[in-house]
Design brief:
Elements (H helix, E strand, L loop, with lengths): L4 E9 L9 E10 L2 E8 L8 H7 L12 H12 L3 E4 L2 H14 L7 E4 H8 L8 H8 L9 H31 L13 H4 L5 E6 L5 E7 L2 H10 L5 H9 L2 E6 L3 H15 L14 E9 L2 E8 L11 E5 L2 H14 L20 H4 L13 H12 L13 E7 L4 E8 L2 E6 L2 H8 L9 H11 L4 E4 L13 H4 L1
Parallel strand pairs: 1-4, 4-5
Antiparallel strand pairs: 1-2, 2-3, 6-7, 6-8, 9-10, 9-11, 12-13, 12-15, 13-14
Helix pairs in contact: 4-6, 5-6, 10-15
Length: 481
């Protein structure tokens, strides 16, 4: 049975991020033995309220100018919610904001939480939309002052009463009970971590015994992604191994997916986690470079390791993790386009002017024996390699890729030079520190592919005034953390 003491809670805030944003209004409908009492208060957030939020809620800086700060309200809020089942729509939002406000004060806030979005999805699976506006229309709820805390808390209480009538108390109790079923966690992991995981983009790090870094991953929803590891631990061998070894979880929030991707790649390259393999740095990074041996005669030359300078990518084709991978790729291209393996340097013949093996099988058009002009062979080679051509850095110097959360108006600036990621700045001081770093840019295949994809899309790019000093060092040290 559901508890007799219920608190239907709604908050208005300055944005969607409980770590960076603040509460501007709290509304609570407290129901005990069927009797409802209502309480609400404005809260001075101590920070800017974005125009979008002002328009949505009607809460402006003038409205909260004389309101108390959260610290002055904390005791009363905790007293009102003590012993209650905490009920909210999209409950992790409201619960997360309250937990973070108390955490900033050095206090712990904890409650049993029920989300009415999840209740609606479970009890009415035939419907696709479960927003509060959808519930108002579907269940005939009486909306008074939408997007104000007490009015929205009242709507949640109305919805709860509708559920008690249809589908009924038994179905409601079972749906509530299902929300209390927590996913199985690794045996050595503190269960309290589930309450703190945010529903935000970012990177997560799993640590094992002696704080050894086991795994780094990214997601646009950290909470869902981390929990998915544990839900899969009995089905996938790697997940099972990680679950057995994990002792601690750390996460770093980002404004959006691009920041998460860049940070994930950088952390894996620099920290070398035990269970990450695909994105690890490979010292044998190679590319094919076309070199003109004579007028119109272009031949591929494999450039690897220390000889590889991919900050200048003109006439470079493909990025490969080893010489073997590069050679196999070029052989496949040659076979698909009837290019001469001997002319390409991939096969030896018995002597100059002697046919390659492919020519004997009619798989080569004869550049090896003079049947095909070398200029034509070179042109066909260039056409075949075109899709692998690396992009030349299109900017005169260092740039910042601006990633923005439109709700909170928070911005991150990802600093990039010659396809190399130097770090992410959250403010001007961090940006200045990154630009002044003495670390030389380090080219990375995965970062190049990521940036080449995003710079061709709708991203805001800003030129930056200073180039990084070119002395050896680790990439992205300043700002990447």
């Amino acid at each position: 049975m559901t508890p007799q003491r219920l608190a239907f809670v709604d908050l208005e805030t300055t944005g969607a991020n409980p770590v960076h944003d603040r509460i501007t209004e709290i509304g609570i409908v407290l129901v005990e033995d069927g009797h409802a009492t209502r309480w609400s208060t404005l809260v001075d957030p101590g920070c800017r309220i974005p125009p979008f939020i002002q328009t949505l809620t009607g809460i402006t800086p003038e409205v909260v100018a004389d309101a108390p700060r959260f610290e002055a309200l904390a005791d009363e809020i905790q007293s009102r919610l003590a012993g209650c089942l905490f009920v909210a729509h999209n409950a992790r939002f409201d619960y997360g904001f309250l937990k973070n406000e108390f955490k900033r004060m050095g206090r712990r806030f904890q409650a049993d939480v029920v989300c009415t979005v999840k209740l609606s999805r479970r009890l009415f699976p035939q419907f696709h939309k479960h927003s509060l506006d959808s519930l108002i229309e579907r269940h005939g709820l009486l909306a008074d002052d939408r997007h104000r805390a007490l009015a929205d808390a009242e709507l949640i209480w109305q919805f709860w009463q509708k559920l008690q009538a249809q589908p009924g108390l038994a179905a409601l109790d079972e749906a509530v009970r299902q929300q209390f079923v927590r996913p199985s966690l690794p045996p050595h992991l503190d269960a309290g971590v589930l309450d703190d995981l945010p529903d935000l983009p970012g990177v997560y790090l799993f640590y094992g015994e002696d704080d050894v870094l086991l795994y780094v991953g990214k997601s646009i929803n950290l909470r869902q992604r981390v929990l998915s590891h544990f839900q899969a631990d009995t089905r996938a061998f790697r997940e099972l191994r990680i679950s057995q070894q994990i002792r601690r979880i750390e996460w770093r929030e980002t404004v959006g997916e691009l920041g998460a991707l860049l940070l994930e790649s950088w952390l894996i390259k620099s920290r070398q986690p035990v269970h990450n393999r695909a994105l690890r740095r490979n010292s044998e990074l190679c590319t094919w470079q076309l070199v003109e041996h004579a007028v119109g005669d272009f031949r591929p030359r494999l450039v690897c390791g220390e000889d590889l300078d991919l900050t200048q990518t003109r006439d470079c084709f493909g990025l490969f993790s080893s010489q073997r991978e590069a050679t196999l790729a070029l052989k496949k291209i040659a076979e698909a386009n009837q290019l001469c393996l001997a002319t390409l340097g991939l096969e030896k013949t018995t002597g100059k002017g002697r046919p390659c093996f492919g020519y004997q099988l009619q798989q080569c058009k004869g550049a090896c024996v003079g049947r095909e002009a070398i200029g034509l062979h070179s042109a066909r080679l260039m056409a075949a390699l075109a899709r692998l051509k690396l992009k030349t850095w299109p900017y005169p110097g260092v740039i910042g890729i601006v990633e923005r959360d439109e709700v909170s108006e928070r911005e991150d600036i990802h600093v990039v030079h010659n396809w190399c990621y130097l770090g992410t700045a959250h403010d001007e001081a961090q940006l200045a520190a990154i630009l002044d770093t003495r670390s030389a840019p380090v080219f990375d295949r995965d970062t190049y592919k990521l940036l080449a994809k995003h710079l061709g899309g709708k991203v805001r790019v800003m030129p930056l005034a200073f180039a990084p000093k070119q002395t050896p060092g680790e990439p992205g040290v300043c700002g990447a953390d």
